[in-house]
Amino acid sequence: MVNLSVQLAPKHPRGLLLTNPVMTASGTFGYGTEYSHMFDIQKLGAIVCKGTTLEPRNGNPQPRLAETAGGLLNSIGLENIGINALIEEKAPIWASWHVPVIVNIAGETVGDYTRLASQLDGVAGISGLEVNISCPNIKAGGAEFGANPDSAAEVTAAVRQATSLPVLVKLTPDTSDIAGVALAVAEAGADAISLINTLKGMAIDITKRSPLLGNITGGLSGPAIKPVALYMVYEVAGAVDLPVIGCGGITTASDALEFIMAGASAIQVGTASFTDPRAPLDVLEGIEQFMKKEGIEDIAELIGVAQR
Ligand SMILES: Cc1cc2nc3c(=O)[nH]c(=O)nc-3n(C[C@H](O)[C@H](O)[C@H](O)COP(=O)(O)O)c2cc1C
User: Model-level pTM?
Assistant: First the structure.
């Protein structure tokens, strides 16, 4: 037996203990319910649901997806059912699950984040919040908050005040100072830091001579962004005394192990679930096999071993 459990909120009174470090990335695994008939999702470390806003959203105009070399561009624009439906319809299902569910929240103002956080506080079935200050696909808020340390800290402090739940803050790579943003977020009371969200990009339809996505720009994800994400995780894990959750292009167990060795306490599988919905479970099984083969008894022995 190997010990895969990780503590994602060591400074939080209740903590956020996962049985293993494999999570799903927000927006790529719905509410978890959509996948429960495909494999035993209860085996995962945690599920992060689709980004949730105060009101339901229809998202951006079509087309909203475009494949790129080694990646995917999306401009979904936070289409979601809204917080009331989430509390009434999804949370009661999650409350019967063994796997913890973390709700990803997104707002246009600091007040939106505060309201979302306080409404979700104490709701059975919700184990933590992931604060999305990194969505590139909405007109106001989103990545603007995550781009600089002051605004990132302001949102984090407001959410911290509004909830007793563990607070994960998800950073955008679209900043010139990722470690500075991470330090500010840590100081403002985050329990853990997730990174990265998608990188802003675009594609052009040459026959129509116009941008391919209805929103013109979108967020790039998938294997194409893995080296960028890995570097940023390495940088943040070396700078901040909080658990880091690595995300960006993780498709296989060896990708996940790279992030863990760079300093991630847990990882999220995103775009890979679109090509193979079982990808998170395969990643988990592969990590376990690697540990057995290498004679590693505890995942803690691997976290950050590549830091120099
Ligand atoms: C279709 C799609 C929708 C996404 N929606 C969200 C979202 O609602 N909230 C969020 O924080 N991240 C969202 N993301 C970003 C992912 O959670 C993840 O950070 C990013 O895709 C990088 O990981 P990957 O390369 O493994 O997909 C979305 C990504 C995709 C591809």
Answer: 0.98
Nearest atom in ligand 1 to the alpha carbon of residue 221 is 25
pLDDT in tens, 85-144: 999 999 999 999 999 999 999 999 999 999 999 999 999 999 999 999 988 777 777 788
User: In angstroms, what is the span from residue 46 Cα to ligand 1's centroid?
Assistant: 15
Instruction: Indicate which atom in ligand 1 lies nearest the CA of residue 272.
Output: 26
Q: How far is CA 47 from CA 21, 68, 189, 269, in A?
A: 11, 26, 22, 10
Q: Which residues contact 303 (CB under 8 A, 6 or more apart)?
A: 6, 260, 261, 263, 264, 265
Ligand 1 centroid distance, CA of 42 (Å): 21
Q: Where would I find the beta strands (DSSP E) of the chain? A: 6-7, 17-18, 22-24, 47-48, 65-68, 71-74, 101-105, 128-132, 167-170, 192-195, 199-202, 204-205, 210-211, 217-221, 244-247, 264-269
- Whether the CB of 233 sits within 6 Å of ligand 1: no
